[in-house]
Amino acid sequence: MNTAAVASKDIEVVKGSRSTRPAPPEMRRALDVIATSCSSPDLAFGDVAHDVNISERHLRRLFAQHLGFGFRQDVRELRLKKAADLLATSSYSIKQIVGITGYLGPSHLSYDFRARFGTTPSLYRAKMTGSQESSFERDSD
What we know:
Layout: H1 25-37, H2 45-52, H3 56-66, H4 71-89, H5 94-101, H6 106-117, H7 121-129, H8 135-140
Helix pairs in contact: 1-2, 4-5, 4-6, 4-7
């Protein structure tokens, strides 16, 4: 997946999408709403459509046409990108990162993180910071 697709300023043409046209303003606004609200576990597609003042059906079509993937995948990618950044650059615990990124719990973050990056959050942190993984962090995943 093209992670640049999740930033509204970067979606002129998304690799793998069906459209070669620039994204319409509604799509850009929707991606901005998602980017600013993705840390909320209560973020809902209907709320984004309402904030952008278009129907859910139209917003789904825009996602499919311009991104080639849907709302949940976009939110997941933003959350994972934020989690990876926090793991590499902060001393927040896994539980704190779960709260910051909007995941419901450490197991949800760990599952998505493993699927996306091929490693656990703790091992990713150890690799990125060059430190040894602590047993506390291992137990938090």
